[in-house]
Specification:
The chain has about 350 residues and is mainly α. The protein has 14 helices and no strands. The radius of gyration is 21 Å and the shape is globular.
Length: about 350
């Protein structure tokens, strides 16, 4: 019954999102959007795409900072998994590529997946921390649109909560990892959770957290540059404040991606935010399409080139107990499948 309810909820969400996107599409003057796309400067777009790739590379370095102490110290492996995972996120919903790269790195290094998952959780924590910090600074320092400015209490609360959580991780005692009997599934699950929490505590240090925060700031700054360069390529006169507002708006859902690559939703949020700032929404749609083109095509292509086995193996992750050809979410598998 519960599974049916969840499935119905997902279907209802997709129907609602689809309805909003169709309504949005009917109100776009596609002729104006197409003219803006045709006027784009190829050289500036290539520069923006390069900046976006560097931003993603910084995220790979940030993950590597946490992978090293658990025994997965290959910088090249961390970069390959990061690009391949981002490529999968462009093709799937709900950031499923992040789950798949845990298994990819775990199998490549023979490090228990609970430990790899813990390092990814920390990497994602600092991605979120960078976003929340940018949101707080933007609200305080820039004249952002009303809907974003009204998030000030939420942003401050979120930043405080993240700060307390970081302090909690740093204050946890670094103890020896305890492993109990694994003859039963409950014992395996307990050990999986113990490996996860033990890794969180053992990897959490001030130098690593400082490096991760600096890398997060750099990655988000490069995203701002990517958005601004793309707007400049189509002669869209959006200001720095407008670019920051659009970046904050399109990332407000963070890990929630109702469509593959968030296509459609991204354009909707970008255009609505730009229109709220007084810019032409039709040209804004063109900018949003080009931003996503840079984020999807080069990243996915590099993911395939750097880690083709990553994409192939994803189809076989759930071979135990799953029909051939059926995609399985790695997080749905029992812990013993990961070791």
């Amino acid at each position: 019954m519960k599974a049916h309810a969840l499935r119905a909820l997902r279907v209802a969400m997709w129907v609602a999102v689809g309805a909003f996107l169709i309504l949005f599409a009917t109100r776009v003057q596609w002729g104006d959007t197409w003219r803006a796309l045709r006027s784009a400067s190829l050289s500036i777009l290539l520069a923006a795409a390069a900046v976006n790739l560097v931003s993603l590379a910084l995220k790979g370095v940030r993950w590597w900072v946490f992978l090293r102490p658990v025994g997965a110290d290959s910088f090249w492996l961390a970069m390959r998994a990061t690009f391949a995972g981002a490529g999968l996120n462009n093709l799937l919903v709900a950031n499923s590529g992040d789950a798949a790269r845990v298994i990819f790195v775990s199998r490549a290094t023979r490090v228990p997946s609970a430990k790899i998952l813990a390092t990814l959780a920390l990497e994602r924590l600092f991605e979120l921390s960078g976003y929340v910090l940018m949101l707080v600074l933007g609200i305080w320092l820039l004249p952002l649109p009303g809907p974003i400015a009204e998030l000030r209490p939420v942003a401050i609360t979120a930043l405080a909560a993240l700060g307390f959580f970081v302090l909690f991780l740093l204050s946890r005692e670094k103890t020896e990892e305890r492993v109990t009997d694994e003859s039963h599934w409950s014992g395996r699950l307990r050990n999986y959770l113990r490996r996860f929490t033990h890794t969180l505590a053992s990897v959490s240090t001030i130098p690593r957290f400082t490096a991760a925060m600096v890398l997060s700031a750099g990655a988000w700054a490069l995203q701002i540059a990517t958005y601004q360069l793309t707007a400049r390529a189509v002669h869209f006169p959006i200001t720095f404040t407008g670019t920051v507002a659009c970046l904050l708006a399109v990332n407000v859902g963070f890990a929630l991606r109702p469509t593959p690559g968030n296509v459609g939703v991204f354009q909707l949020l970008y255009a609505l935010t730009a229109a709220a700032l007084g810019f032409d929404s039709n040209a804004a749609v063109a900018v949003a399409f080009l931003i996503q083109t840079q984020q999807i095509l080069p990243v996915t292509a590099m993911g395939v080139v750097l880690a083709p086995e990553f994409l192939r193996k994803r189809r076989h992750i759930g071979t135990a107990g799953a029909p051939a050809g059926v995609a399985v979410n790695p997080l749905d598998l029992p812990p013993e499948q990961f070791e």
